[in-house]
Amino acid sequence: MVGTSALRRPAVLAAETAAVAAGYYAAGKLGLLRQLVVEGAIFTPIWPPSGVAVACLLILGLRCWAGIALGALLVILSLTSLSPSVVFNLAGNTAAPVCAYLMLRKVGFRSDLARLRDGLALVFLGALAAMLLSSTVGVGVLLVTDELPAHAFWPVWLAWWVGDAMGVLIVTPVLLVVHAARRPPPLTRWKEAAGLAIIALALIPLATNSHVSLLFLVYPLLIWSALRFQLAGSMLCALVTSVLATIAATDGVGPFAGLTRVEVMGKLQAFNGTMALTALLLSAVITEQRSTRRSVERACQELVEVLEHLTAGDAPYGRPPKGTEDGPPGRS
């Protein structure tokens, strides 16, 4: 039995590493389908692999870092040949999600995102702070190797940083929700979910492709989905919206028509960022309030039961009847 367990651990670790690498690579290829050009540098408005990497670390732990590194290497090699700069990009793309994981663990992050503090930690530590590492290393390598002029550093750095951060804000919560799913909701919730999905599939393409600025129409859907379905509903709605908005931005249609590349980047990233923040933090607040209400209801129910027993002359739970605390009475 000892020998079997010892052999099983490396096999499980190898399987996990391969699965994480495959997921990272697939997410990278999806992200590369839509690109924008800023100061001659090509970047993706949303970089899904960063969200996949942080989610894998939160689910599997630090042992999956090798799978992240392997997946990042495969994505980089699909774009360019092996060179010394690849090593630095690989280190930055691996270290950023690892730093996000370590910082989130440090503050007691819970992957169910049932508290407002968890949502804030994912936003400010997992996305905005940790992704500074990958963007700084990546753009720094371009600058040192003379592939990027010095005056273009900050626009390209900002685009890289925001793209990585958007991947964490949008993709990581969805993967955590999928991992935590245990059983389907009741039939009555499915009817409401179907109605929400039909309205979303009709309204979101209209908002992201209309020449009239109608992007604000998405926010009532986010509020509805957060109120009724918490994180699962709001983040799925945000994911669909961000994908369609990115497609419209890269095609230069709808509210992004007639804008320069820099203006397209600014408008798209501002919209995706505010939408993801709204969906994530609103659902966290609602989930936390519902959890608090359930705790108060349970406490009230227990208090009512104790009062009923006291009124009936019975002892409260956990206390022996009066006169029996010191054992059976002795004879005089």
Molecular structure report:
This protein has 332 residues and is mostly helical. The chain folds into two domains: 11-182; 183-315, no CATH class. 73% of the residues lie in helices and 2% in strands. The protein has helices at 2-31, 48-60, 65-77, 84-106, 116-129, 131-144, 153-180, 187-209, 218-251, 261-311, and strands spanning 36-38, 41-43. A two-stranded antiparallel sheet has the order 1-2. β1 and β2 (41-43) form a beta hairpin. The protein is globular and about 85 Å long.
The end-to-end distance, rounded to whole angstroms, is: 64 Å
Gyration radius from CA atoms, angstroms: 26 Å
Strand count, sense and barrel status of the largest sheet are: 2 strands, antiparallel
Query: What is the global morphology?
Result: globular
Quaternary: single chain
- The counted number of beta strands is 2
Q: Could you tell me the strand content as a percent range?
A: under 5%
Query: Which strand order do you get reading across the main beta sheet?
Result: 1-2
Region (Disordered): 313-332
Subcellular location: Cell membrane
Domain MASE1: 19-290
Transmembrane segments: 119-144, 156-181, 193-219, 231-250, 270-287
Briefly say what this structure is:
The chain has ten helices and two strands. With 332 residues, the protein is mainly α. Helix 2 (48-60) packs across helix 7 (153-180) and helix 5 runs antiparallel to helix 10.
